[in-house]
Amino acid sequence: MSTTSKPLLEVNGVTLQYKTKEYLITATYRVDFKVYQSDRFVLLGPSGCGKSTLLKAVGGYLTPTEGEIRLKDKIVTMPGPDRMMVFQEFDQLPPWKTVKQNVMFPLIASGKLKGRAAEEKAMQYIEKVKLAAFANHYPHQLSGGMKQRVAIARGMAMEPDILLMDEPYAALDALTRKKMQDELLLLWDDTRFTVLFVTHSIEEAVKVGNRILLLSPHPGQVTAELNSTGEDTRDASGKSLSERINTMLFEENVEEEEEVVHV
Description:
Blueprint: E1 9-19, E2 23-35, E3 40-44, H1 51-58, E4 66-71, E5 74-75, E6 83-86, H2 99-109, H3 115-128, H4 144-157, E7 162-166, H5 174-191, E8 195-199, H6 202-208, E9 211-215, E10 222-227, H7 241-250, E11 260-262
Parallel strand pairs: 3-8, 3-9, 6-7, 7-8
Antiparallel strand pairs: 1-2, 1-4, 2-11, 4-5, 9-10
């Protein structure tokens, strides 16, 4: 990633709010960041800081109350095939479709490819996530980690400008989660795709991301932006990157109450 190049994604002063029956709740407040081509950009913060809400806004599912989101210099106003999302839920795959059919589905539904071309593209990415032997299996025949690999293949087969991943490994056990992180990095080495990754795990952020944006407790505001090599390196003071992040997230922040307005 070169910060001298033009950003692929720009989030400029974005405030996001949502309503309950009684309240207007501010999820994020004037958040700014830029994502460049081939970045592995991580949004990191405690539960309730607006990470997933921000990801949905980048996906075009939420409209900012304030500020704007630009992808390739065009304002994001709705979902599109240039942004594909991978969620943590295992039920994101239609159970009546095989692995191959699941990966083919968005290609066909979007009109991007048809028939044999869609099948070939699907198999290309199924092979990349090492599931070629399971192409004709159904989701109920797969483990949780395998289902997530199918979801990743489905998103990447569309060859979007940016892959949006919302805590995709949170529901997995520790060993499978580590394996999936390793596989994601190997896949990135192969294709150099751009990913915006949400997590509340400091360890995962340090391993997966090359750039990490720290968000404060609700309403989410930018605390810091850090670079990561994928290793939990120590600075001159002897503190590891994860220790420094922990300090920034949980010790230096003054406790803030969620911004709630009666409506």
